[in-house]
Design brief:
Elements (H helix, E strand, L loop, with lengths): L1 H16 L12 E2 L3 E7 L9 E10 L4 E8 L6 E6 L5 E2 L1 E2 L5 E5 L2 E7 L1 E9 L9 E12 L3 E12 L10 H9 L3 E2 L5 E2 L4 E5 L10 E6 L12 E5 L2 E5 L12 E8 L5 E10 L5 H4 L1 H15 L6 H14 L4 H31 L13 H18 L14 H22 L7 H9 L3 H24 L1 H4 L8 H8 L1 H17 L3 H30 L3 H25 L15 E3 L2 H9 L4 E6 L4 H11 L2 H9 L3 E6 L5 H9 L7 E5 L6 E2 L6 H9 L4
Parallel strand pairs: 13-20, 14-20, 21-23, 22-23
Antiparallel strand pairs: 1-2, 2-3, 3-10, 4-9, 5-6, 5-11, 7-10, 8-9, 11-12, 14-15, 15-18, 16-19, 17-18, 19-20, 22-24, 24-25
Helix pairs in contact: 4-9, 4-10, 5-8, 5-13, 6-8, 6-10, 7-13, 7-14, 9-10, 14-15
Keywords: Cytochrome c-type biogenesis, Membrane, Transmembrane, Transmembrane helix
Subcellular location: Membrane
GO molecular function, one term: protein-disulfide reductase activity
Length: 691
């Protein structure tokens, strides 16, 4: 036994005294509490090459990180220098792997964590080629957690001359090199204002769900600000907020990260040349405004606007036989209400997008709180129309105060028309909305103003054009009857909005909504009673008592809304039919790879146009049989509450709201269907491959 033990020790001595050691080319470590750092070599021997590959290895403790070439808003990149056979020192050229992003306390950094290897190259001096090499490598790096600690170390190792052999550490260096950004397959450009863009056939919206740009130099972009992505077939744009309000003049080097539907990320090394982009917003502004104007006109025919048709009819009947100046002022007030609401929406959209929110058309209906407040408002208006209480619309007043009240009513009607119209997108509106929500503020305002003018046009024509005004009947008792009759379309709208709240699947929100109907009904009745008693000048104490009771009920409703509605973010679990598949970017990609036809329906419970299309066309026997016979997968995306994947899909196809219908044939390009459907329209798109 002793002989075998001595033999074993002898073999160990022979191996360690020879020219090869399994750990020979990973140097001794510089060790601290936060990391352990060494130098690696990809070969155990030097075979006369001019260029050698080494690696700086930093094993970081949990919670610590080090930095990329551009550390971001804080930090410092690592650096190395090498001296070979006591010759002059040279800087090592680090080949930086792709970093991670880290946001802390309003600052953005580009970092590495865990076992970090930074490959770098050094050149052998001409007079040392073919000799044994002795390396002295100096490195500096910064590690951070709650605090940042600068560190440095000097590493010494030898590479004897001889036949090159792969060291055990070569695979680690190669693994680090594989994480380097790949060369971009596309020509990448950036405008002087910071819009990075790619025009290439290979750009596919279905394969790009997210992207961000990381420049190699700091101080170029605002690291923390959101970068807004827009993708359509053949075109990718990425809005990159610049660090300073100064136009770019020189190409920008960096890494473009692209994420697909399966959350796989690819990093591409790009050199973005400064070049302008001719976008639809720039070249076809008149077309966008014209489309918005036509869409606004057609929006008057959309189901979403039905709730305010009652108020518009009432207003028209009121001014039908008035002097032309009165009709002009009424039209101006109604149009001003519409335009004010649209302009506020433009500011809100641009502001929220600038803060990083990815919102689309009709986003407010994704909030149960907004839907409840709108439902309560329409309920109160309907009770007013029924005469439960009286807010004067000045139907018989001719004095200045009466006129002022009438114009205020017209202005309010315009505001309300826009609020309830936003769940729907009429024909021609899709391209206009997409342009408005991805354009500078002034262009967004122009597009929304065009849409508002289109929405107001029918009312203005009936009010101001004599030939149209003659159609309107003279005022009389019938107006009071019409006012009461028109309350019922508003009550139907309340029923629809209550159904939308129910679709949010938030039980307490639905309970608060129903409680509100009871409470507001009592409040409106009490107000009407107080008005009657006040006109008669009696029961002053009784009026005060009911006034206090009204305030208490409103406080209870407000408290219930605050505690049980405004902060609920429940996720809808849509119940779909057996032959319907829930939308998923991953499922869609797999089906397309297998060349299976897919029909996608992007919808929402608050979109009446979507509901009508579903009942009239998509759920019809003809269409469902066509799906079955042609083996078409019917996929539904429900946007009743915000879903980022659906939002990204809509945006990738140039839309900012629902409905959106797309048919992917087994072979060939996808086909986008109109926003108003019939069963025959759907069947024609399923059968006509030329569309």
């Amino acid at each position: 036994m002793r002989v075998w033990f001595l033999f074993f020790l002898g073999m160990i001595g022979f191996i360690t005294s020879g020219s090869y050691s399994v750990l020979a080319k990973e140097t001794d470590a510089v060790i601290s509490k936060q990391d352990q750092t060494t130098i690696l070599s990809d070969s155990d021997h030097y075979d006369g090459r001019k260029e050698l590959l080494l690696g700086l290895r930093i094993k970081l403790a949990p919670g610590w990180h080090t930095y990329w070439i551009n550390p971001g808003d804080a930090g410092e990149p690592a650096s190395v220098s090498a001296q070979i056979n006591n010759s002059g020192a040279q800087e090592g050229k680090i080949m930086w792997p792709s970093p991670e992003q880290l946001t802390e306390n309003g600052l953005m950094s580009y970092i590495y964590k865990g076992d970090v290897i930074l490959p770098f190259k050094v050149l052998v001096p001409d007079d040392q080629i073919g000799k044994d090499l002795n390396f002295k490598v100096k490195a500096r790096w910064l590690v951070c957690a709650d605090v940042c600690i600068p560190e440095e170390g000097e590493f010494v190792f030898d590479l004897p001359k001889g036949q090159a052999s792969i060291s055990p550490d070569a695979s680690l260096i190669q693994q680090a090199l594989s994480k380097k950004p790949k060369k971009s397959p596309w020509d990448v450009y950036i405008t002087s204002s910071g819009k990075l863009w790619v025009k290439q056939e290979g750009v596919d919206p279905a394969l790009i769900t997210k992207a961000w740009f990381m420049p190699e130099k700091s101080g170029i972009i605002d690291q923390v600000a959101s970068q807004t992505l827009y993708v359509k077939p053949g075109l990718l744009t990425l809005d990159i907020p610049l660090a300073v309000k100064k136009e770019l003049q020189q190409p920008v080097h960096g890494v473009l990260a692209i994420q697909d539907g399966q959350n796989q990320i690819q990093h591409f090394s790009v050199q973005a040349k400064v070049a302008p982009l001719s976008t639809p917003v720039q070249t076809s502004l008149l077309l966008l405004i014209g489309s918005a104007f036509l869409g606004g006109i057609l929006l008057n025919l959309m189901p979403c606007v039905f709730p305010v048709i009652a108020m518009k009819l009432l207003s028209l009947s009121r001014i039908g036989q008035e002097h032309i100046n009165v009709r002009y002022k009424s039209s101006i007030a109604y149009t001003a209400g519409i335009l004010c609401c649209f302009i506020i929406m433009a500011f809100a959209f641009v502001g929220l997008r600038w803060m990083g929110s990815q919102l689309g058309w009709g986003f407010q209906f994704q909030s149960a709180g907004f839907v409840i407040l709108l439902c309560w408002l329409l309920f109160v208006i309907s009770l007013n129309f029924l005469g439960v209480f009286n807010v004067q619309f000045s139907l018989n007043n001719t004095g200045p105060a009466g006129r002022s009240s009438e114009y205020s009513s017209d202005f309010f009607t315009g505001l309300l028309a826009v609020l309830v119209a936003t769940p729907c997108t009429a024909p021609f509106m899709g391209i206009a909305i997409a342009g408005a929500l991805n354009a500078p503020l002034w262009i967004s305002i122009l597009i929304f103003v065009g849409m508002g003018l289109g929405l107001a046009l029918p009312y203005v024509l009936f009010a101001c054009v004599p030939s149209f005004a003659r159609i309107l009947p003279r005022p009389g008792l019938w107006m009071d009857i019409l006012k009461q009759l028109l309350a019922f379309p508003l009550l139907l709208s309340c029923l629809w909005l209550a159904w939308v709240v129910y679709q949010h699947q938030q039980s307490m929100s639905f309970f608060v909504l129903l409680s509100g109907f009871t409470g507001l009904g009592f409040v409106c009745w009490a107000i009407g009673l107080i008005q009657q008693l006040y006109m008669q000048g009696i029961y002053r104490v009784f009026r005060i008592f009911f006034g206090i009771l009204i305030v208490l009920i409103l406080c209870l409703l407000g408290g219930g809304f605050y505690f049980f509605v405004h902060d609920q973010n429940g996720k809808i679990e849509t119940q779909l039919k057996e032959n319907v598949m829930t939308y998923s970017a991953q499922k869609l990609e797999l089906l397309r790879k297998d060349h299976k036809p897919v029909f996608i329906n992007m919808t929402a419970s608050w979109c009446l146009t979507c509901m009508v299309n579903d009942k009239v066309a998509l759920s019809s026997t003809k269409v469902q049989e066509a799906f079955k016979h042609q083996h078409i997968t019917y996929m539904v995306g429900d946007w009743t509450q915000y879903d980022k994947s659906i939002g990204d899909f809509l945006k990738a196809h140039g839309r900012e709201g629902v409905p959106l219908y797309i048919y992917y044939p087994a072979y060939g390009k996808p086909k986008i269907l109109p926003q108003i459907l019939t069963s025959n329209i759907v069947l024609s798109y399923l059968s006509d491959l030329k569309k």
